[in-house]
Design goal:
This is F-box domain-containing protein. α5 packs parallel to α6. By secondary structure, the chain is α/β, with parallel strands linked by helices. The protein has a domain of 164 residues. Strands 1-2-3-4-5-6-7-8 form an 8-stranded parallel β-sheet, with helices on both faces. α10 links the parallel β7 and β8. It has 11 helices and 8 strands.
Length: 281
């Protein structure tokens, strides 16, 4: 152990940093352990730990808020506040909403946000002045360019008033009943370049409703829209996707139709580790 320590100490700092960062990226538990090695190693590994954060339970939400809330009591306060380290944030727990609201307020540097909780419920908190029903557009989500609204967040359709108008990448999970909210897409999000829509389809029958709506979105799109990915959910996803591809017959190359992965939240996370591609056609 002493030989290993001496060897690392003899390395140039930039090489030692690459070694520790590689170890931290390779294993999350290792990254957590490395934060206790020294101040320098902690400084190098904290960005790895907090770059991409996925919160899937009430406990995870609560503990993450405790971790990123600034405190004068800690002797390990980082040079850069932890909430400024978060670049990709996925909150798939349904609550507690007051803690989620606080996290969204703190994490202002997020570049990519995924939500699985109810945005309508979040907007009713007294601490928030913005409402989904408001005539005026006042987004309740932090400024970002990429949003993934799945689960409860899109239960009533696409909540346009909660999304900044300069959003460029959007992934939504919609029911067949909420499909009509796509009609307002380009008027509400004129900067959109990439769109992914995940829809539950138990058979090929809904294709008669879905494909005309997708075609209308493509026809009405500005030249900025580069790709539209339709992800078919359900036990017969592969068969429905194949039928959609045959029926579409390459009418617009921007559209790709694929079976949805088993977990949309896991897909979101894997998009940022290089194991999954959502925006490629």
């Amino acid at each position: 152990m002493a030989t290993t320590t001496s060897l690392l100490a003899s390395l140039p700092q930039d090489i030692a940093r690459e070694i520790f960062e590689f170890a931290a990226y390779s294993d999350r538990q290792c990254a957590m352990d490395l934060t206790l090695v020294s101040k320098d190693v902690r400084l190098w590994t904290l960005p790895v730990l907090y770059h991409t954060v996925r919160l899937s339970s009430t406990r995870a939400v609560t503990r993450f808020l405790e971790a990123i809330t600034p405190s004068n009591k800690s002797t390990l306060t980082p040079y850069c506040p932890l909430h400024r380290r978060v670049k990709h944030l996925g909150i798939f727990a349904l609550g507690p909403l007051d803690a989620i609201q606080r996290i969204l307020t703190l994490c202002t540097d997020v570049q990519n946000l995924a939500c699985g909780f109810s945005l309508r419920a979040l907007s009713t908190l007294k601490a928030l002045p913005y409402f989904l029903d408001s005539e005026e557009r006042q987004p309740i989500l932090p400024q970002s360019r990429e949003y993934h609204l799945i689960g409860m967040s899109c239960r009533d359709g696409i909540p346009y008033n909660s999304i900044p108008s300069d959003t460029t990448h959007l992934h939504v999970q919609l029911s067949l009943d909420a499909l009509g909210t796509l009609e307002a897409l380009h008027g509400k999000l004129p900067s959109l370049t990439h769109l992914a829509v995940s829809i539950q389809m138990p058979s090929t029958k809904p294709l008669g409703l879905v494909l005309p709506m997708i075609e209308a979105v493509l026809d009405d799109a500005s030249p900025k829209l580069e790709s539209l990915r339709l992800q078919v959910m359900g036990s017969k996803a592969q068969a429905v996707a194949d039928a959609a591809i045959n029926e579409w017959n390459g009418r617009d190359k921007r559209l790709s139709v694929v079976p949805s992965p088993g977990s949309l939240s896991k897909q979101w996370q894997e998009c940022h580790t290089g194991h999954e591609q959502l925006w490629s056609s």
